[in-house]
C-alpha cells in the first residue's frame, strides 16, 4: 500500500474532526439517554457507523418505536450511500469483493467528498488515500462515542440531554440546504414529519418526513426539460421542428 497516499488522506481528514468529535460525543450521550449499555451502544456504533442514522434510531428507540420502524427510518436516511457507492465504483473496479466491502463499510459523506475531489486532481493512489480518510474518521468517531457514553453516564437525568439530538440534526440540516431542491426537501420533510408525529401511529412521523422530503427534492431537482425547450424555442421565434433560418443566406437570395 502507498503510505504517502494514506498519510495524505489522514492529513486531509484532520480538519473534519472539528465536526466529527462533537457529533460522536452527542451520539454517545444520546445512547445513554436512550437506556443503552456501553456494549449495546458501541455495538450499534460499530455495526451501523452512520451518525445521522444512529441518532435517529436512538431517538426512536427512546420513544418506544417498533424495531421495523427504527430500521426502515435508518435505511431511508442512508439511501444516499448507494449513490456515493455507485459514483466511487469505477475508481475501485480492479479490487476484490472483500476490499470493496471493507471500503463500503467505512464510507461516509466526508470520505466520499474528499476522495472524489482528490481523484479529479489525479496523481493519487486511490485506495490508500480513501482508506486514510475513512479510517481516520472511523477511529475518531468510535473514540468520541466512547467518551460521550462515559460522560453521559455521569450526567444527572434532570439535565434532560435528549435535546441534544434535535440540535445536532439542525446543525446538519442548515449547511445542507444549498439550493431550491434541498430547501424544498427540508421544508416538506419538516412539515410531513411534524404532522406524522401528531397523527400517525407507531412513531412513523420521522419515516414519513424522510420519504416525503426525498420525494419532494427529487421532483424539484428534475424539472420538465420539454417545457424548458419549448420556452427557449418560443423566445427565439422559431417553430419547433423547423430548422433555424440563416439571415445571411436570405439576404443573398434577395440580392
From TrEMBL:
Belongs to the AzlC family. It is a multi-pass membrane protein. Keywords: Cell membrane, Membrane, Transmembrane, Transmembrane helix, Transport. Residues 223-255 are annotated as: Disordered. Residues 232-242 have a biased composition (Low complexity). GO terms for cellular component: plasma membrane. It is found in: Cell membrane. It holds the Pfam family AzlC. The chain crosses the membrane at residues 12-32, 129-152, 158-177, 184-202. It comes from Halocalculus aciditolerans. This is AzlC family protein. One of its GO terms (biological process) is L-valine transmembrane transport. It comes from the Archaea.
